[in-house]
Amino acid sequence: MSHHIAIVDLGSNTTRLVIYDYEPGKRFHLVDEVRQVVRLREGMGNTNILRAAAIKRSLNALRMFRALCDALGVEDAVVAATSAVRDAGNSASFLARAEADTGWTLRILSGEEEGYYGALGAVNATGLSTGFVIDLGGGSAQVTEVRGGLPRQSVSLPLGALRLTELFLDSPKVTPEQVEALRSFTREQLEPLDWFQAQPGDGLVAIGGTIRNLTQIDQAQKRFPLDTVQGYELQADSLHDISERLWRLSLKKRIALKGLRSDRADIIHAGALVFSEMLRYSGFATITISRQGLREGLFYEQFLADQPRPVIDNLRRFSVENLARNFDNDDAHSRHVAFLALRMFDQLRTAHQLDDSYRELLWAAGRLHDIGTVVNYQSHHLHSYYIVLNHTLPGYTPRELALIALLCRYHRSKGRPGPKELASLLQKGDADALVALVGILRLAEFFERGRRQVIRDVRCHVDLEHGWLQIEALAAGDAAMEMWDAGRNLDVLTQALGLEVELVEGMWLEEDDQH
């Protein structure tokens, strides 16, 4: 049964509403999202009193969110407040006013809870099993240790971008002395965290608006071809360079900087300096960016409520299945295409010599190759390509996402397989592997042309010495159409393997069933 839930995150700088449609433990998708800069911490300084203008902006945003939820019929809501409300001396009055205006009871998260939920969202977006998650917001930064795929100890530090801007960089022209004071303060806060050190096998994931904007600046400089930060590997050296450049720019020039949101330009340099110091302290050379964070962590607690722990088992497989379910993919057809493709991949190892990392990508493309038919059939391969790239697949890297999307794009005989605009994401050998995988996927697709699983299995017989390959299609009925269409689409596989390919229709026997 489908449910709707709203998650509201009232942060120190920004408040956001996300609305999910979901079936518990099975599938979910984002229905709507609204972001509003409220600057709730603005003007608090060291007094820790919420100011009148900030209160007004925040209450207006909450009332707007409630109106949208009412219009969409969303009754179940989780509304969380973080650093600014947590620290405020007048928080009780603010919370009472918010409840009177919206009917929502706001939950104030402790610093440890904020770290936990942010890390939970990041783990379910990246598959991080051991390492750390940094969540840097407007008022605070959380550092959370992850072990065994679960958030463990967490600490909240007064290192938010808005807070530090007001304390250290609140002048039109930033001086080196101000920058050094901010850096020194950051190092003082990090000094007790002797457990926040890179060890072999550890990963570092970062969430929040500051790191997303810093990543977008880096992507713009490098002409990154995807319109997402999810899974992006931000190099420490790049972050240090961006951090050094940002504080030296005037506000006007920061506003004009490609990749940076203009409403974050006045505080981004403080956040960049904090991240730079965190990387130096911990010793990590890269950060993986997670698009998911606190809001998603709160959602996963609801979505996985019936499971032993709120972490998705086998994240990569779930991501593919979740996307397929949300687009009402022809389940029997796509599963059979994936099955036939993997059977050929396994039996042709001596010919293609690809490792199992490509096998997993082939399976994902087999499951998703037809999701574009929800738009139309004629160009569904292009729509599938677009959907995969733009919905992303949590747990997969940008390179892997590109390969899956390209396989979807070329699963029909529409153009010569090639990386094209995604070439910069691929590694050595990927372009040749793409051709081989496309050849296999196309053949699997045409063996399943009638969408009736009449060709139940395949047997591949390879003679490398004499340069030929026979693929025996084991049919459980009349497979004339499938054999005809498959026979017309052998060119890519022939090219990739350098073998003469012949098809033979065999008879499937029940004892041969490999499903």
Describe the structure.
The structure is a single chain. With 515 residues, the chain is α/β, with parallel strands linked by helices. It folds into three domains: 3-108, 2-Layer Sandwich (Nucleotidyltransferase, domain 5); 112-294, Exopolyphosphatase. Domain 2 (Nucleotidyltransferase, domain 5); 316-512, Orthogonal Bundle (Hypothetical protein af1432). The protein contains 20 helices and 14 strands. It has helices at 52-71, 83-87, 91-102, 111-126, 161-168, 176-190, 209-222, 236-248, 251-255, 268-282, 294-303, 315-326, 331-347, 349-352, 356-368, 380-391, 398-409, 430-447, 480-487, 491-497; strands at 3-10, 14-23, 27-37, 76-81, 107-108, 131-136, 141-147, 150-157, 203-207, 233-235, 286-289, 455-463, 468-475, 500-507. The strands form three sheets. It has a six-stranded mixed β-sheet, with helices on both faces. A five-stranded mixed β-sheet has the order 3-2-1-4-5, sandwiched between helices. The protein has a three-stranded mixed β-sheet with strand order 12-13-14, covered by helices on one side. Strand 7 and strand 8 (150-157) form a beta hairpin. The longest helix is centred in the first third of the chain and has 20 residues, at 52-71. It starts with a strand and ends in an 8-residue tail after the last strand.
